Task: inverse folding
């Protein structure tokens, strides 16, 4: 699109969290263009005049990083007067949590690079992107207390240890094993299978799957998972 | 401010819910200017070039309705391509819940009138304002399940019936009395006083107040109040 085809005062930035083998990551790009060329940033860009916001978010993310059809939720709109150096630009932040291994990155357009960074070692980000990331991280941690997670992040059949690792990763903390199991099993969210993890070193761990019906129900109705 | 001093593509709309003697209301204005002159709308306007968003929201609300210093939370940004008839305008919605009796309305600027309408009988609204209201109402109903409410809405000392009426009003439903009391008292949120409501018809009802410390704690930490 040419410059005139964008709403010049509105951008979208995407906070894409990645669950990667027990580590929480965030997708960053190295900017190819000014302002802040060479700086690390959340993938972001301007909204097309003829694009609805949710569509624009997907388009921007795909153009910069190659990630296709990612379901994102709108998080918050950032609009401090001096947040962007060239003009008054208000940015709508979208967020998602995906499984790193399911996707391949391909940097293009305003992204010299597109890289998963561990959340614990994020470099300095351009503009107000560090604040955006902080808000998104806080929201993610709050959301996992109110909604089940794991459906798109774990294998179909998983052990309780794998599920606990997911929670520990997102919350960036360690949880008491016995307490976690008691709470998660108390929610009737999991179905215990008569199958066990293969190749486990000592004794094989039982596999579980989500009760899809219950998962959907809790997703829409919410719960309180005090961890 | 002159036209050039606004960001022409960004507006803010305010969903101000009012708790009014057992009825849930929403603040609407009758528009004084085109587009949709004479139509009922949420109070809204453009963002000043030199205004942060939170400040702009307060300014707009005060200019149109006379409501001062209302604490609002940013809710969601609406940006469908055709949501506004004259140009591409993206609107950031802010929301609040206040006590109708605490404030006086004074319509001005783009508001011919500023009126509290019962949520159950809202007229047709301009642009996508009905959708904004629906989203805000849904969020309000969800939030009361996760956070305590009432501090700014009830008298300092209140009866359990008054508190239940507040919940019933916001949720637009009736709740079982015994169940409600059991749950609310189980949260250690209330302090029972050795005082009773005056002038009660049959027997006087006990007065309660919020445990301020616990209220704040639950407000930030969240809970699950299954109603």
Result:
């Amino acid at each position: 699109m040419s410059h005139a085809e964008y709403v010049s005062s509105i951008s979208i930035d995407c906070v894409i969290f990645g669950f990667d083998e027990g580590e929480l990551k965030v997708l960053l790009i190295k900017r190819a263009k000014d302002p802040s060329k060479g700086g690390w940033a959340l993938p972001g860009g301007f909204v097309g005049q003829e694009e609805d916001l949710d569509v624009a978010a997907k388009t921007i993310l795909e153009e910069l990083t190659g990630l296709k059809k990612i379901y994102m939720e709108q998080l918050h709109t950032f609009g401090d007067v001096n947040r962007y150096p060239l003009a008054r630009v208000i940015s709508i932040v979208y967020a998602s949590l995906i499984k790193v291994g399911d996707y391949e990155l391909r940097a293009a357009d305003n992204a010299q690079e597109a890289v998963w960074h561990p959340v614990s070692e994020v470099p300095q980000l351009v503009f107000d992107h560090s604040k955006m990331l902080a808000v998104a991280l806080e929201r993610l941690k709050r959301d996992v207390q109110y909604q089940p997670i794991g459906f798109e992040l774990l294998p179909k059949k998983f052990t309780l240890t794998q599920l606990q690792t997911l929670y520990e990763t997102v919350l960036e903390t360690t949880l008491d094993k016995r307490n976690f199991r008691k709470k998660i099993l108390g929610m009737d969210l999991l179905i215990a299978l008569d199958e066990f993890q293969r190749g486990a070193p000592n004794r094989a761990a039982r596999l579980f799957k989500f009760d899809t019906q219950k998962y959907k129900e809790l997703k829409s109705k919410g719960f309180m998972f005090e961890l």
Observations:
- DSSP finds five helices and nine strands in chain A.
